[in-house]
Queue: 3 jobs
Job 1
Amino acid sequence: MHSDIQKTCDADERFAARFPDRQFWLRPASRGEVREIFGRKVRGWHPCLAVWREGDIYRKVPFFATTRDVADASDGVSAETAVNAIESLREGVVLRILITRSGRAL
């Protein structure tokens, strides 16, 4: 499991190096992150993370989405998702979002 978590950390660092102006991004959770952060899968929902970068610190905020295809979200959408996910966690639940493309649910 450690190597899986390390791979995702390395991937986040590569993303940050490739897009140095991005502070937020979304991505599907790895198997190790699902076990460590979510604990279990939820039928019909995909475990994902909003990554919030502040310098060399990466905060990963869990949420569920209707699809794993979340990586193309803009910095603004990713930031809004991170904030909403944090607020949901404060209320004791994991945020669930419906992903849409051109007004159609995915």
Job 2
Amino acid sequence: MPEETNRTVVKTYIPEYQKDEWRSHADELDMSQSEFVRTMVQAGRRGFEINPAQTSEGGSNPRGDELKTRLLETLASEEKMSWDELVERLAGNFEDRLENALNELQSANRVQYSGRHGGYTLVGGVDGRT
């Protein structure tokens, strides 16, 4: 992952109901809206093949194939689903995993949330040492 240096603004226009849903989800996760959107975009990108040449035909492709399998299973359980319904169903698993991981790391005092600074911070470095 590239080093974080300068930040820039990204703007998009979405329906008001969608912003309300995102705000609600962000609040449930104690995240800012920006942090929530950034996290969800990154999570979604992990599920799509960016460079098909990097995948092997006969080998495992846990990110691409897993998403395809989950998508097929989800669609098999319903007659039809909208884009928003699919995103909510498939992203929900990520949100649960993220929340569990954050809770475990906070319990182990490896990550802490700072309301003052508006986000999560690492305690003691990646390896747990200062």
Job 3
Amino acid sequence: MIAPFRSPAGALALAVLAGGLLAGCSGGTSTSVSCTGATCRATVSGAPVEVSQPDAQSTRTRTSSTKRRPARNNDGVDFGVNAIGPGWVDVEDDGTVTRVPQGGSFVEDGSTVRLESSDGRTAVFTFAKR
């Protein structure tokens, strides 16, 4: 039987790929949303992750580490963050993905959501409840 040829470069590439995948998974994803009056602030770490405004009666912070769920229509501010980069985010709203630059905004169910900052790992959004 002939032994298969193994390339040291191929083994190194696999090791780098595996290390990158493990490093990408180590941080996890989470969302923290807090509201004061009609103004809400969402801090997103990692992607993909869902952002939803708390119930109208709730004034407490909501923390979530769940992945994106199916799109909902006209039921309050809720959108998904598919990717985060330095100065931008990819937002999924009701099945449509849009790249939003830092300082940019989009309308979600009647509320204007603004991307305040994004450093490539964490993004901060502000929006007003309806």
